[in-house]
Specification:
single chain, 356 residues, alpha/beta, TIM Barrel, 14 strands, binds zinc ion
């Protein structure tokens, strides 16, 4: 399909957490977290324990709506909801499909929710249920991968089982890797298991010659927000894509952040290097070439977009179907999604507040 200068294919977000769409405005922790691990414990791991299927549905619909408003038609999602595991991936998939958004989702298995003070040495019941949800969803024809939260919250048995299931189902593994110091041992534990079709999220603390196979997904805004450091993504020999880690799905915006973060340290680098990451994203979701986005800006090229803010979609076609025309959704009732999502967020915040 021939594109005009003011058009792109549908953009791809290579790492998202659709369950976090309702998190904005959630009750803040009693004490401000002072480390990445404390952020996980006092914010995200409270949020995920509070999710039910209804909240997951409206969170995914709001996330998909915001993705479309940014010209993103394809989302690679990583999900966790320990108190609503069964059916969660179908809920997300159907929620996105109802807006016409393409999604590849997975359930991030973990052993961190087990009782007791010792780290789990073997696969916990939660991890088994998470693996089964991945298995069920993919076997029933769902578009997905096998999710792992991160090596540091999993036993070796769980990591091996997840990798084995991915091989059996001929899909990749989608896993956070070395996001912070706490997960620095991920390399040695994942090296014997990783394959080219894996998605390795973050890689901030990876050695240059880490030896893991797969595509690294760089999430610069999230890394800055969590104070984990800079991934220096150009040092890797792996392909590198770009994600948002749940902070929306505006890939042109994330491209701009990734570019200035790169340029801050390397004055000779160009926006084209970061644009290549968006091209890697396209290879991870090849159907994006069937989608066409027409933009408010006349030249959708890296040297222009690095310095042009506020570029928005005007028209969006997904598989030939007009989803947006003249900046307005044609069939999607955005106001209804926003209202239902707001109701769900009130319920969610109550549940979070009840978790001590
Ligand atoms: Zn993430």
């Amino acid at each position: 399909m021939e594109l005009k200068a003011n058009q792109t294919h549908g953009l791809v977000c290579a790492h998202h957490h659709l369950y976090s769409s309702l998190a904005r405005g959630m009750p803040s922790p009693a004490q401000a977290p002072t480390s990445f691990h404390e952020i996980l414990e006092s914010v995200w791991w409270k949020l995920d324990r509070s999710l039910d299927l209804d909240i997951i549905e409206w969170s995914a619909k709001l996330g998909a709506l915001e993705a479309l408003r940014s010209g993103t038609t394809c989302i690679i999602d990583h999900h966790e909801s320990p108190n609503a595991i069964e059916g969660s991936l179908t809920t997300i998939s159907e929620a996105c499909a109802s807006l016409g958004v393409r999604v590849n989702t997975c359930y991030g298995v973990t052993d961190r929710n087990h009782e007791g003070s010792e780290k789990a040495m073997a696969m916990t019941e939660d991890a088994k249920r998470g693996l089964e949800e991945n298995h069920r969803f993919i076997s029933e024809g769902g578009r997905g991968m096998i999710g792992i939260h991160a090596a540091f919250t999993c036993s070796d048995e769980t990591l091996e089982a997840a990798a084995g299931l991915a091989s059996d189902l001929d899909v990749g593994v989608h896993v956070h890797v070395a996001e912070g110091e706490i997960d620095a041992s991920a390399t040695s534990r994942l090296k014997p298991l990783s394959k080219d079709n894996w998605l390795l999220i973050h890689g901030v603390k990876l050695e240059d010659d880490h030896g893991l196979k797969g595509t690294i997904i760089h999430n610069p805004r999230s890394n800055m927000n969590n104070s984990v450091g800079y991934a220096e993504p150009l040092r890797f020999s792996n392909p590198v894509g770009l994600g948002t880690d749940g902070i929306g799905a505006d890939m042109i915006d994330e491209f701009r952040v990734a570019y200035v973060r790169l340029r801050e340290n390397h004055i000779i680098e160009s926006p084209e290097k970061v644009w290549e990451m968006l091209e890697v994203n396209n290879s991870l979701f090849p159907e994006c070439i069937n989608d066409v986005v027409t933009w408010t800006y006349h030249k959708m090229e890296p040297w222009h977009l690095a310095f042009t803010t506020g570029v928005r979609p005007v028209n969006i076609q997904i598989n030939g179907e007009h989803v947006m025309e003249n900046g307005e959704f044609t069939k999607i009732d955005a106001a209804e999604i926003e209202a239902k999502a707001a109701e769900a967020s009130i319920r969610l915040f109550k549940k979070i507040a009840e978790i001590t």
